[in-house]
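Researcher: For the record, we're logging two predictions in this thread. I'll number them. Prediction 1 follows.
Model: Prediction 1, sequence and structure:
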Amino acid sequence: MATFKLNISDKKGRTISKEVKEKDASPFLGLQVGSELDAALVGEAGKLKITGGSDKSGVPLRPDIHGGARKYILLSPGVGLRTAEIGQRIRKLIRGSTITEEVYQINCSIDSELKVEEKPKEEQAEKKESADKPKKA
Protein backbone atom coordinates (compact mmCIF):
# COMPACT_ATOMS: atom_id res chain seq x y z
CA MET A 1 0.00 0.00 0.00
CA ALA A 2 0.94 3.64 -0.30
CA THR A 3 2.61 5.89 2.24
CA PHE A 4 2.61 9.65 1.72
CA LYS A 5 4.32 12.51 3.47
CA LEU A 6 1.93 15.48 3.47
CA ASN A 7 3.28 19.03 3.72
CA ILE A 8 0.32 21.21 4.67
CA SER A 9 0.70 25.00 4.59
CA ASP A 10 -1.69 27.82 5.38
CA LYS A 11 -1.97 31.36 4.05
CA LYS A 12 0.29 32.77 6.79
CA GLY A 13 3.20 30.58 5.67
CA ARG A 14 3.11 28.04 8.49
CA THR A 15 3.71 24.46 7.48
CA ILE A 16 3.23 21.12 9.19
CA SER A 17 4.24 17.64 8.05
CA LYS A 18 2.09 14.57 8.50
CA GLU A 19 2.62 11.02 7.35
CA VAL A 20 -0.34 8.97 6.17
CA LYS A 21 -0.07 5.22 5.71
CA GLU A 22 -2.05 2.30 4.34
CA LYS A 23 -5.82 2.88 4.69
CA ASP A 24 -5.49 6.59 5.53
CA ALA A 25 -3.56 7.12 2.27
CA SER A 26 -6.12 5.47 -0.02
CA PRO A 27 -8.34 8.60 -0.46
CA PHE A 28 -5.37 10.40 -2.04
CA LEU A 29 -4.77 7.79 -4.75
CA GLY A 30 -6.11 8.88 -8.12
CA LEU A 31 -6.46 12.56 -7.20
CA GLN A 32 -4.82 15.19 -9.36
CA VAL A 33 -2.88 18.36 -8.62
CA GLY A 34 -5.49 21.06 -8.01
CA SER A 35 -8.06 18.70 -6.44
CA GLU A 36 -9.76 19.64 -3.19
CA LEU A 37 -10.72 17.30 -0.37
CA ASP A 38 -11.80 17.44 3.25
CA ALA A 39 -9.00 18.14 5.76
CA ALA A 40 -10.64 15.85 8.33
CA LEU A 41 -8.70 13.01 6.68
CA VAL A 42 -5.53 14.36 8.32
CA GLY A 43 -7.09 15.69 11.53
CA GLU A 44 -7.51 19.34 10.55
CA ALA A 45 -10.56 21.52 9.91
CA GLY A 46 -11.30 22.97 6.48
CA LYS A 47 -10.48 22.04 2.90
CA LEU A 48 -7.16 20.77 1.54
CA LYS A 49 -6.04 21.70 -1.97
CA ILE A 50 -3.29 19.62 -3.56
CA THR A 51 -0.69 22.01 -4.97
CA GLY A 52 2.08 19.61 -6.02
CA GLY A 53 4.42 16.89 -4.86
CA SER A 54 7.23 14.59 -5.86
CA ASP A 55 7.95 10.89 -6.19
CA LYS A 56 10.44 8.71 -4.31
CA SER A 57 13.37 9.91 -6.43
CA GLY A 58 12.47 13.62 -6.25
CA VAL A 59 10.81 13.99 -9.66
CA PRO A 60 8.15 16.72 -9.33
CA LEU A 61 4.47 16.41 -10.25
CA ARG A 62 3.46 18.82 -12.98
CA PRO A 63 -0.19 19.90 -13.25
CA ASP A 64 -0.29 20.20 -17.06
CA ILE A 65 0.87 16.59 -17.73
CA HIS A 66 -1.94 14.01 -17.68
CA GLY A 67 -1.64 10.65 -15.95
CA GLY A 68 0.80 9.43 -13.36
CA ALA A 69 3.67 8.31 -15.57
CA ARG A 70 7.16 9.78 -15.76
CA LYS A 71 7.96 11.55 -19.03
CA TYR A 72 10.77 13.59 -20.52
CA ILE A 73 9.38 16.90 -21.73
CA LEU A 74 10.82 20.15 -23.06
CA LEU A 75 10.52 22.77 -20.29
CA SER A 76 10.87 26.50 -20.00
CA PRO A 77 11.23 27.94 -16.46
CA GLY A 78 8.44 26.88 -14.09
CA VAL A 79 7.56 23.69 -12.22
CA GLY A 80 10.49 21.30 -12.57
CA LEU A 81 12.97 23.83 -14.00
CA ARG A 82 14.29 26.64 -11.84
CA THR A 83 16.75 28.52 -13.97
CA ALA A 84 17.11 28.94 -17.68
CA GLU A 85 18.12 31.84 -19.86
CA ILE A 86 15.56 33.76 -21.86
CA GLY A 87 14.27 31.54 -24.65
CA GLN A 88 16.15 28.47 -23.42
CA ARG A 89 14.30 25.19 -23.01
CA ILE A 90 15.62 22.01 -21.41
CA ARG A 91 14.43 18.41 -21.63
CA LYS A 92 13.73 17.16 -18.09
CA LEU A 93 12.05 14.21 -16.39
CA ILE A 94 8.62 15.08 -14.97
CA ARG A 95 5.79 13.02 -13.43
CA GLY A 96 2.15 13.58 -14.43
CA SER A 97 -0.42 15.26 -12.21
CA THR A 98 -2.19 12.10 -10.95
CA ILE A 99 -1.18 10.76 -7.53
CA THR A 100 -0.09 7.13 -7.71
CA GLU A 101 1.63 4.74 -5.30
CA GLU A 102 5.05 5.94 -6.53
CA VAL A 103 4.42 9.45 -5.17
CA TYR A 104 6.22 10.05 -1.88
CA GLN A 105 5.47 13.67 -0.97
CA ILE A 106 2.26 15.65 -1.47
CA ASN A 107 2.20 19.43 -1.01
CA CYS A 108 -1.14 20.84 0.14
CA SER A 109 -2.59 24.19 1.15
CA ILE A 110 -5.39 24.57 3.68
CA ASP A 111 -7.97 27.33 3.72
CA SER A 112 -8.06 27.62 7.52
CA GLU A 113 -5.32 28.57 9.96
CA LEU A 114 -2.91 25.90 11.21
CA LYS A 115 -2.16 25.44 14.88
CA VAL A 116 1.60 24.96 15.03
CA GLU A 117 3.02 23.72 18.31
CA GLU A 118 5.84 25.95 19.46
CA LYS A 119 8.75 24.63 21.52
CA PRO A 120 9.11 25.95 25.07
CA LYS A 121 11.61 28.79 25.51
CA GLU A 122 13.75 26.61 27.80
CA GLU A 123 14.46 24.10 25.00
CA GLN A 124 15.34 26.90 22.58
CA ALA A 125 17.74 28.44 25.13
CA GLU A 126 19.44 25.06 25.67
CA LYS A 127 19.94 24.57 21.95
CA LYS A 128 21.40 28.07 21.62
CA GLU A 129 23.84 27.48 24.50
CA SER A 130 25.03 24.17 23.06
CA ALA A 131 25.52 25.80 19.64
CA ASP A 132 27.62 28.63 21.16
CA LYS A 133 30.13 26.27 22.81
CA PRO A 134 33.29 25.73 20.75
CA LYS A 135 33.89 22.18 19.56
CA LYS A 136 37.05 20.36 20.50
CA ALA A 137 39.17 18.90 17.76
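Researcher: Logged. Prediction 2.
Model: Prediction 2, sequence and structure:
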Amino acid sequence: MQREREFAEKLEQILPPRLVDFLKRAGEKAAERNEQAYIVGGVVRDLLLCIDNFDIDITVEGNAVALARELSRSAFDRITVHKQFNTATIKFDQWNIDFVTARSEIYEYPGALPKITPASLEEDLKRRDFTINAMAIGLSGKNYGELYDPCNGKTDLQSRNIRILHEKSFVDDSTRIWRGLRYEQRLGFQMEQRTLELLIRDIPMLDTVSGERIRYEIECILKEKYPERVFSRAFRLGVLGSLNTFIKFDTRKEEWFLRAREMNCPNVPSDLLYWLLFTYELDMENREKLIARLHLPKQIAQALRDCHAIKERLEMLAAPDITNSQIYRLLCAYSPSAIIANIIAVEEDESRKALNLYIEKLKNVKAIISGSDLLKMGFEQGPQLKELLDAVLDARLNGKALTKEDEIAIVKKMLAG
Protein backbone atom coordinates (compact mmCIF):
# COMPACT_ATOMS: atom_id res chain seq x y z
CA MET A 1 0.00 0.00 0.00
CA GLN A 2 1.38 3.36 -1.03
CA ARG A 3 2.33 5.74 1.78
CA GLU A 4 3.46 9.30 1.21
CA ARG A 5 4.09 11.70 4.09
CA GLU A 6 3.81 14.70 1.74
CA PHE A 7 0.04 14.72 2.17
CA ALA A 8 0.29 16.06 5.70
CA GLU A 9 1.63 19.25 4.14
CA LYS A 10 -0.98 19.17 1.37
CA LEU A 11 -3.80 18.96 3.93
CA GLU A 12 -2.48 22.04 5.69
CA GLN A 13 -1.93 23.99 2.47
CA ILE A 14 -5.39 23.46 0.99
CA LEU A 15 -7.84 23.03 3.89
CA PRO A 16 -8.78 25.91 6.24
CA PRO A 17 -6.67 25.90 9.46
CA ARG A 18 -9.66 25.29 11.77
CA LEU A 19 -10.74 22.32 9.67
CA VAL A 20 -7.19 20.91 9.76
CA ASP A 21 -7.19 21.31 13.56
CA PHE A 22 -10.46 19.37 13.75
CA LEU A 23 -9.07 16.56 11.59
CA LYS A 24 -5.95 16.33 13.75
CA ARG A 25 -8.12 16.19 16.84
CA ALA A 26 -10.22 13.41 15.26
CA GLY A 27 -7.07 11.43 14.47
CA GLU A 28 -5.66 11.90 17.96
CA LYS A 29 -8.94 10.88 19.61
CA ALA A 30 -9.11 7.77 17.40
CA ALA A 31 -5.53 6.85 18.40
CA GLU A 32 -6.47 7.22 22.08
CA ARG A 33 -9.22 4.67 21.43
CA ASN A 34 -6.73 2.33 19.66
CA GLU A 35 -8.53 3.03 16.39
CA GLN A 36 -7.52 4.53 13.04
CA ALA A 37 -9.26 7.43 11.30
CA TYR A 38 -8.88 8.51 7.66
CA ILE A 39 -10.33 11.09 5.32
CA VAL A 40 -11.60 9.23 2.28
CA GLY A 41 -13.18 9.53 -1.15
CA GLY A 42 -13.89 12.70 -3.07
CA VAL A 43 -12.03 15.07 -0.76
CA VAL A 44 -8.81 13.04 -1.21
CA ARG A 45 -9.27 13.05 -4.98
CA ASP A 46 -9.77 16.80 -5.00
CA LEU A 47 -6.82 17.42 -2.66
CA LEU A 48 -4.57 15.65 -5.17
CA LEU A 49 -6.08 17.76 -7.96
CA CYS A 50 -5.74 20.95 -5.84
CA ILE A 51 -9.50 21.54 -6.03
CA ASP A 52 -11.31 23.03 -3.02
CA ASN A 53 -13.60 20.47 -1.43
CA PHE A 54 -14.64 20.80 2.20
CA ASP A 55 -17.20 17.97 2.10
CA ILE A 56 -15.29 15.78 4.56
CA ASP A 57 -15.92 12.04 5.04
CA ILE A 58 -14.01 10.31 7.85
CA THR A 59 -13.80 6.52 7.81
CA VAL A 60 -12.89 4.81 11.07
CA GLU A 61 -11.40 1.37 11.63
CA GLY A 62 -13.37 1.02 14.82
CA ASN A 63 -16.60 2.61 16.05
CA ALA A 64 -17.29 5.76 14.03
CA VAL A 65 -20.37 6.82 16.01
CA ALA A 66 -18.60 6.48 19.38
CA LEU A 67 -15.64 8.49 18.07
CA ALA A 68 -17.96 11.23 16.78
CA ARG A 69 -19.75 11.37 20.15
CA GLU A 70 -16.45 11.84 22.01
CA LEU A 71 -15.35 14.56 19.60
CA SER A 72 -18.69 16.29 19.93
CA ARG A 73 -18.48 16.36 23.73
CA SER A 74 -14.99 17.81 23.64
CA ALA A 75 -15.66 20.41 20.94
CA PHE A 76 -19.26 21.40 21.84
CA ASP A 77 -20.25 20.76 18.22
CA ARG A 78 -23.69 19.60 17.14
CA ILE A 79 -23.93 15.91 16.31
CA THR A 80 -26.57 13.96 14.41
CA VAL A 81 -26.53 10.17 14.65
CA HIS A 82 -28.10 8.13 11.85
CA LYS A 83 -28.87 4.90 13.70
CA GLN A 84 -30.19 3.02 10.66
CA PHE A 85 -26.84 3.51 8.88
CA ASN A 86 -24.62 3.49 11.99
CA THR A 87 -23.10 6.83 10.94
CA ALA A 88 -22.86 10.29 12.46
CA THR A 89 -22.48 13.86 11.26
CA ILE A 90 -20.79 16.63 13.24
CA LYS A 91 -21.59 20.25 12.43
CA PHE A 92 -18.30 22.05 12.96
CA ASP A 93 -18.34 25.76 12.11
CA GLN A 94 -19.79 25.87 8.57
CA TRP A 95 -18.75 22.29 7.73
CA ASN A 96 -20.64 19.03 7.99
CA ILE A 97 -18.24 16.16 8.71
CA ASP A 98 -19.49 12.60 8.26
CA PHE A 99 -18.17 9.67 10.32
CA VAL A 100 -18.55 6.13 8.94
CA THR A 101 -17.18 2.82 10.17
CA ALA A 102 -15.02 1.07 7.55
CA ARG A 103 -17.20 -1.53 5.88
CA SER A 104 -17.58 -4.10 3.16
CA GLU A 105 -20.70 -4.51 1.04
CA ILE A 106 -22.52 -7.50 -0.44
CA TYR A 107 -25.15 -7.04 -3.16
CA GLU A 108 -27.64 -9.91 -3.07
CA TYR A 109 -28.99 -9.07 -6.52
CA PRO A 110 -28.53 -6.27 -9.11
CA GLY A 111 -29.86 -2.95 -7.89
CA ALA A 112 -30.29 -4.10 -4.29
CA LEU A 113 -29.13 -1.91 -1.46
CA PRO A 114 -25.98 -3.55 -0.07
CA LYS A 115 -25.67 -5.57 3.11
CA ILE A 116 -22.96 -3.95 5.21
CA THR A 117 -20.46 -5.52 7.61
CA PRO A 118 -17.49 -3.89 9.44
CA ALA A 119 -14.20 -4.27 7.57
CA SER A 120 -10.67 -2.95 7.18
CA LEU A 121 -9.84 0.29 5.39
CA GLU A 122 -8.53 -1.61 2.36
CA GLU A 123 -11.77 -3.60 2.05
CA ASP A 124 -13.72 -0.35 2.42
CA LEU A 125 -11.79 1.34 -0.37
CA LYS A 126 -12.14 -1.65 -2.69
CA ARG A 127 -15.95 -1.60 -2.49
CA ARG A 128 -16.16 1.97 -3.86
CA ASP A 129 -17.28 3.16 -7.28
CA PHE A 130 -14.16 4.40 -9.11
CA THR A 131 -10.42 4.19 -8.47
CA ILE A 132 -10.13 7.98 -8.15
CA ASN A 133 -12.59 7.83 -5.24
CA ALA A 134 -10.88 4.85 -3.57
CA MET A 135 -8.08 6.66 -1.77
CA ALA A 136 -7.64 7.70 1.87
CA ILE A 137 -5.28 9.87 3.91
CA GLY A 138 -4.41 8.79 7.45
CA LEU A 139 -5.19 11.05 10.42
CA SER A 140 -4.00 8.98 13.40
CA GLY A 141 -0.54 8.90 14.98
CA LYS A 142 2.37 7.97 12.71
CA ASN A 143 -0.10 7.44 9.84
CA TYR A 144 -1.03 11.14 9.73
CA GLY A 145 -0.71 12.44 6.17
CA GLU A 146 -0.07 9.03 4.58
CA LEU A 147 -1.84 8.18 1.33
CA TYR A 148 -3.61 4.80 1.09
CA ASP A 149 -4.18 3.89 -2.55
CA PRO A 150 -4.79 0.14 -3.01
CA CYS A 151 -6.57 0.61 -6.35
CA ASN A 152 -4.01 2.92 -8.01
CA GLY A 153 -6.37 5.88 -8.05
CA LYS A 154 -3.50 8.35 -8.11
CA THR A 155 -2.26 6.82 -11.39
CA ASP A 156 -5.72 7.23 -12.91
CA LEU A 157 -5.85 10.83 -11.70
CA GLN A 158 -2.55 11.51 -13.47
CA SER A 159 -3.78 9.83 -16.68
CA ARG A 160 -7.21 11.50 -16.30
CA ASN A 161 -9.12 8.20 -16.38
CA ILE A 162 -12.45 7.18 -14.86
CA ARG A 163 -12.08 3.46 -14.04
CA ILE A 164 -14.37 1.09 -12.13
CA LEU A 165 -12.88 -1.32 -9.57
CA HIS A 166 -14.32 -4.59 -10.89
CA GLU A 167 -16.35 -5.90 -13.83
CA LYS A 168 -19.63 -6.23 -11.90
CA SER A 169 -19.52 -2.69 -10.55
CA PHE A 170 -22.34 -1.33 -12.75
CA VAL A 171 -24.35 -4.53 -12.22
CA ASP A 172 -24.17 -4.18 -8.44
CA ASP A 173 -25.11 -0.50 -8.54
CA SER A 174 -26.03 0.94 -11.91
CA THR A 175 -26.38 4.47 -10.51
CA ARG A 176 -22.58 4.45 -10.90
CA ILE A 177 -23.23 4.90 -14.64
CA TRP A 178 -24.67 8.37 -14.04
CA ARG A 179 -22.05 9.13 -11.40
CA GLY A 180 -19.18 8.15 -13.71
CA LEU A 181 -20.48 10.41 -16.48
CA ARG A 182 -20.80 13.26 -13.99
CA TYR A 183 -17.19 12.90 -12.77
CA GLU A 184 -15.94 12.51 -16.35
CA GLN A 185 -17.47 15.81 -17.48
CA ARG A 186 -16.81 17.74 -14.26
CA LEU A 187 -13.11 16.86 -14.18
CA GLY A 188 -12.51 16.83 -17.93
CA PHE A 189 -11.45 13.15 -17.73
CA GLN A 190 -12.27 10.27 -20.05
CA MET A 191 -13.91 6.94 -19.36
CA GLU A 192 -11.24 4.21 -19.43
CA GLN A 193 -11.93 1.93 -22.42
CA ARG A 194 -12.96 -1.23 -20.56
CA THR A 195 -15.04 0.84 -18.13
CA LEU A 196 -16.81 2.44 -21.11
CA GLU A 197 -17.52 -0.97 -22.66
CA LEU A 198 -19.01 -2.24 -19.39
CA LEU A 199 -21.03 0.96 -18.94
CA ILE A 200 -22.66 0.50 -22.35
CA ARG A 201 -23.21 -3.22 -21.70
CA ASP A 202 -24.90 -2.52 -18.37
CA ILE A 203 -27.25 0.34 -19.34
CA PRO A 204 -30.25 -2.05 -19.01
CA MET A 205 -29.28 -2.50 -15.33
CA LEU A 206 -30.57 1.02 -14.67
CA ASP A 207 -34.04 -0.53 -14.69
CA THR A 208 -33.12 -2.50 -11.55
CA VAL A 209 -32.80 0.54 -9.26
CA SER A 210 -35.57 2.66 -7.79
CA GLY A 211 -36.77 5.89 -9.36
CA GLU A 212 -35.75 7.82 -6.25
CA ARG A 213 -32.12 6.73 -6.61
CA ILE A 214 -32.06 7.65 -10.31
CA ARG A 215 -33.68 11.00 -9.51
CA TYR A 216 -31.00 11.71 -6.92
CA GLU A 217 -28.29 11.18 -9.55
CA ILE A 218 -30.10 13.50 -11.99
CA GLU A 219 -30.43 16.14 -9.26
CA CYS A 220 -26.68 15.90 -8.59
CA ILE A 221 -26.05 16.46 -12.31
CA LEU A 222 -28.32 19.52 -12.32
CA LYS A 223 -26.09 21.07 -9.64
CA GLU A 224 -22.99 20.76 -11.82
CA LYS A 225 -21.56 23.88 -13.42
CA TYR A 226 -22.34 22.55 -16.91
CA PRO A 227 -25.02 19.84 -16.55
CA GLU A 228 -25.68 19.82 -20.28
CA ARG A 229 -22.27 18.23 -20.88
CA VAL A 230 -23.25 15.21 -18.81
CA PHE A 231 -26.64 14.87 -20.49
CA SER A 232 -25.17 15.27 -23.97
CA ARG A 233 -22.64 12.50 -23.25
CA ALA A 234 -25.40 10.32 -21.75
CA PHE A 235 -27.52 10.83 -24.88
CA ARG A 236 -24.69 9.88 -27.24
CA LEU A 237 -23.96 6.71 -25.25
CA GLY A 238 -27.60 5.67 -25.01
CA VAL A 239 -27.88 6.18 -21.24
CA LEU A 240 -30.53 8.90 -21.53
CA GLY A 241 -32.94 6.47 -23.17
CA SER A 242 -33.12 4.53 -19.89
CA LEU A 243 -35.15 7.44 -18.48
CA ASN A 244 -37.43 7.82 -21.47
CA THR A 245 -36.75 6.93 -25.08
CA PHE A 246 -38.24 10.22 -26.26
CA ILE A 247 -35.83 12.46 -24.33
CA LYS A 248 -33.21 13.90 -26.66
CA PHE A 249 -30.21 16.05 -25.87
CA ASP A 250 -28.77 17.79 -28.91
CA THR A 251 -26.90 21.06 -29.48
CA ARG A 252 -30.19 22.95 -29.34
CA LYS A 253 -30.77 21.81 -25.75
CA GLU A 254 -27.18 22.65 -24.86
CA GLU A 255 -27.94 26.21 -26.03
CA TRP A 256 -31.09 26.27 -23.87
CA PHE A 257 -29.07 25.44 -20.77
CA LEU A 258 -26.55 28.14 -21.66
CA ARG A 259 -29.37 30.65 -22.20
CA ALA A 260 -30.87 29.73 -18.82
CA ARG A 261 -27.55 30.59 -17.14
CA GLU A 262 -27.27 33.86 -19.05
CA MET A 263 -30.81 34.85 -18.02
CA ASN A 264 -30.10 34.09 -14.35
CA CYS A 265 -26.57 35.53 -14.15
CA PRO A 266 -24.97 36.13 -11.65
CA ASN A 267 -27.15 33.47 -9.99
CA VAL A 268 -27.42 29.90 -11.22
CA PRO A 269 -30.68 28.61 -12.73
CA SER A 270 -32.99 26.66 -10.45
CA ASP A 271 -33.05 22.88 -10.69
CA LEU A 272 -36.70 23.27 -11.63
CA LEU A 273 -35.89 25.34 -14.73
CA TYR A 274 -33.31 22.78 -15.80
CA TRP A 275 -35.87 19.97 -15.32
CA LEU A 276 -38.31 21.80 -17.60
CA LEU A 277 -35.74 22.32 -20.35
CA PHE A 278 -34.44 18.77 -19.97
CA THR A 279 -37.92 17.32 -20.64
CA TYR A 280 -39.28 20.05 -22.94
CA GLU A 281 -40.01 17.94 -26.04
CA LEU A 282 -42.00 15.25 -24.19
CA ASP A 283 -45.72 14.96 -24.83
CA MET A 284 -48.08 14.71 -21.88
CA GLU A 285 -48.13 10.90 -21.87
CA ASN A 286 -44.36 10.65 -21.64
CA ARG A 287 -44.17 13.41 -19.05
CA GLU A 288 -46.50 11.38 -16.85
CA LYS A 289 -44.40 8.26 -17.41
CA LEU A 290 -41.27 10.12 -16.33
CA ILE A 291 -43.03 11.63 -13.30
CA ALA A 292 -44.09 8.13 -12.23
CA ARG A 293 -40.71 6.48 -12.98
CA LEU A 294 -38.70 9.00 -10.97
CA HIS A 295 -41.36 9.69 -8.31
CA LEU A 296 -40.91 13.39 -8.98
CA PRO A 297 -42.01 15.74 -6.18
CA LYS A 298 -45.33 17.53 -6.62
CA GLN A 299 -43.76 20.91 -7.43
CA ILE A 300 -41.67 19.51 -10.27
CA ALA A 301 -44.48 17.29 -11.56
CA GLN A 302 -46.93 20.20 -11.69
CA ALA A 303 -44.39 22.47 -13.38
CA LEU A 304 -43.84 19.81 -16.07
CA ARG A 305 -47.59 19.70 -16.67
CA ASP A 306 -47.74 23.51 -16.74
CA CYS A 307 -44.94 23.64 -19.29
CA HIS A 308 -46.86 21.33 -21.61
CA ALA A 309 -50.09 23.32 -21.17
CA ILE A 310 -48.28 26.53 -22.11
CA LYS A 311 -46.82 24.86 -25.22
CA GLU A 312 -50.37 24.11 -26.31
CA ARG A 313 -51.25 27.82 -25.99
CA LEU A 314 -48.31 29.17 -27.99
CA GLU A 315 -50.36 29.56 -31.18
CA MET A 316 -53.00 31.60 -29.36
CA LEU A 317 -50.29 33.73 -27.75
CA ALA A 318 -48.87 34.50 -31.20
CA ALA A 319 -52.18 35.96 -32.49
CA PRO A 320 -51.51 39.46 -33.92
CA ASP A 321 -54.51 41.09 -32.21
CA ILE A 322 -54.13 39.49 -28.76
CA THR A 323 -54.69 41.87 -25.83
CA ASN A 324 -52.72 42.12 -22.62
CA SER A 325 -55.65 40.77 -20.62
CA GLN A 326 -55.94 37.76 -22.93
CA ILE A 327 -52.22 37.03 -22.47
CA TYR A 328 -52.70 37.29 -18.71
CA ARG A 329 -55.70 34.95 -18.69
CA LEU A 330 -53.84 32.38 -20.82
CA LEU A 331 -50.83 32.29 -18.49
CA CYS A 332 -51.79 33.37 -14.96
CA ALA A 333 -52.55 29.83 -13.73
CA TYR A 334 -49.10 28.48 -14.54
CA SER A 335 -45.72 28.31 -12.84
CA PRO A 336 -43.39 31.23 -13.71
CA SER A 337 -40.61 28.67 -14.25
CA ALA A 338 -42.74 26.90 -16.86
CA ILE A 339 -43.27 30.21 -18.65
CA ILE A 340 -39.55 31.01 -18.58
CA ALA A 341 -38.73 27.55 -19.95
CA ASN A 342 -41.01 28.29 -22.90
CA ILE A 343 -39.39 31.69 -23.40
CA ILE A 344 -36.03 29.92 -23.72
CA ALA A 345 -37.22 27.05 -25.92
CA VAL A 346 -39.92 28.54 -28.14
CA GLU A 347 -39.03 29.21 -31.77
CA GLU A 348 -41.93 31.54 -32.65
CA ASP A 349 -40.95 35.19 -32.03
CA GLU A 350 -44.53 36.40 -31.44
CA SER A 351 -45.17 33.73 -28.82
CA ARG A 352 -41.91 34.59 -27.06
CA LYS A 353 -42.86 38.27 -27.15
CA ALA A 354 -46.17 37.53 -25.39
CA LEU A 355 -44.48 35.30 -22.81
CA ASN A 356 -41.88 37.97 -22.07
CA LEU A 357 -44.58 40.62 -21.77
CA TYR A 358 -46.38 38.53 -19.17
CA ILE A 359 -43.25 37.88 -17.09
CA GLU A 360 -41.86 41.42 -17.31
CA LYS A 361 -45.03 43.57 -17.07
CA LEU A 362 -48.30 41.71 -16.59
CA LYS A 363 -47.64 39.00 -14.00
CA ASN A 364 -47.82 41.28 -10.96
CA VAL A 365 -50.52 43.70 -12.14
CA LYS A 366 -53.29 44.03 -9.54
CA ALA A 367 -56.51 46.02 -9.40
CA ILE A 368 -56.59 48.81 -6.82
CA ILE A 369 -60.13 48.15 -5.63
CA SER A 370 -60.77 44.88 -3.83
CA GLY A 371 -63.69 42.65 -3.03
CA SER A 372 -64.04 44.36 0.35
CA ASP A 373 -64.30 47.74 -1.43
CA LEU A 374 -67.18 46.44 -3.53
CA LEU A 375 -68.90 44.98 -0.47
CA LYS A 376 -68.69 48.41 1.18
CA MET A 377 -70.29 49.86 -1.93
CA GLY A 378 -73.31 47.61 -1.33
CA PHE A 379 -72.58 44.63 -3.57
CA GLU A 380 -73.31 41.15 -2.28
CA GLN A 381 -70.86 38.26 -2.14
CA GLY A 382 -71.25 35.97 -5.13
CA PRO A 383 -70.34 35.33 -8.78
CA GLN A 384 -71.10 38.92 -9.78
CA LEU A 385 -68.39 40.19 -7.44
CA LYS A 386 -65.72 38.10 -9.17
CA GLU A 387 -67.03 39.12 -12.58
CA LEU A 388 -66.69 42.80 -11.66
CA LEU A 389 -63.16 42.35 -10.25
CA ASP A 390 -62.06 40.43 -13.35
CA ALA A 391 -63.39 43.19 -15.58
CA VAL A 392 -61.53 45.83 -13.55
CA LEU A 393 -58.28 43.85 -13.75
CA ASP A 394 -58.71 43.40 -17.52
CA ALA A 395 -59.19 47.14 -17.90
CA ARG A 396 -56.03 47.83 -15.89
CA LEU A 397 -54.05 45.28 -17.92
CA ASN A 398 -55.23 46.86 -21.17
CA GLY A 399 -54.39 50.39 -20.02
CA LYS A 400 -58.01 51.51 -19.70
CA ALA A 401 -57.94 52.02 -15.93
CA LEU A 402 -55.09 53.96 -14.36
CA THR A 403 -56.60 55.12 -11.06
CA LYS A 404 -59.00 53.84 -8.44
CA GLU A 405 -61.59 56.26 -9.76
CA ASP A 406 -61.23 54.73 -13.22
CA GLU A 407 -61.88 51.32 -11.74
CA ILE A 408 -64.99 52.47 -9.86
CA ALA A 409 -66.28 54.07 -13.05
CA ILE A 410 -65.88 50.76 -14.88
CA VAL A 411 -67.87 48.97 -12.16
CA LYS A 412 -70.66 51.52 -12.37
CA LYS A 413 -70.71 51.32 -16.16
CA MET A 414 -71.00 47.53 -16.04
CA LEU A 415 -73.89 47.74 -13.60
CA ALA A 416 -75.65 50.37 -15.71
CA GLY A 417 -75.22 48.21 -18.78
